[in-house]
Write a structure and sequence with these properties.
about 20% strand; about 120 residues; five-stranded parallel β-sheet
Length: about 120
């Protein structure tokens, strides 16, 4: 089993089931002791902004704010540099603990030894 898990979530409110699956898998992995790095890209980028996760609703799914809180507490959450720029988001606009980084960092993380990468 991989010791590290890198998850890139591209979906937000536009594809709620796919979005929820990514956050759920990431949070379960953190709770299981796995080193998790969650990347917010595309429409999921908005969840880096305070209060936006609370607007997300999906029946029979764990609340997105709870999942995000567990990821911020036990893993790493990164907002894609280009995705942030397209939405006029800067470090001042995002939740405490969310970093902004680009493709080079994602590739480094995804290709590290003992790492599994998933894209939702």
């Amino acid at each position: 089993m991989a010791k590290k898990l890198v998850i890139k979530v591209t979906a937000g409110a536009d594809a709620p089931e796919r979005c929820s699956q990514a956050f759920t898998v990431a949070a379960v992995a953190v709770a299981s002791g796995v080193d998790v790095s969650l990347w917010l890209t595309g429409e999921s980028s908005w969840f880096a902004v305070p209060g936006r996760a609370a607007e997300f609703e999906l029946p029979h799914a764990a609340p997105l704010p709870d999942l995000l809180d567990s990821l911020l507490a036990g893993g790493r959450v990164t907002l894609c540099t280009q995705c942030a720029a397209r939405r006029d988001l800067t470090e001042k606009d995002v939740l405490e603990g969310v970093r902004i980084a680009g493709a080079q960092v994602f590739v480094q993380e995804a290709l590290a030894d003992d790492t599994q990468a998933l894209v939702y």
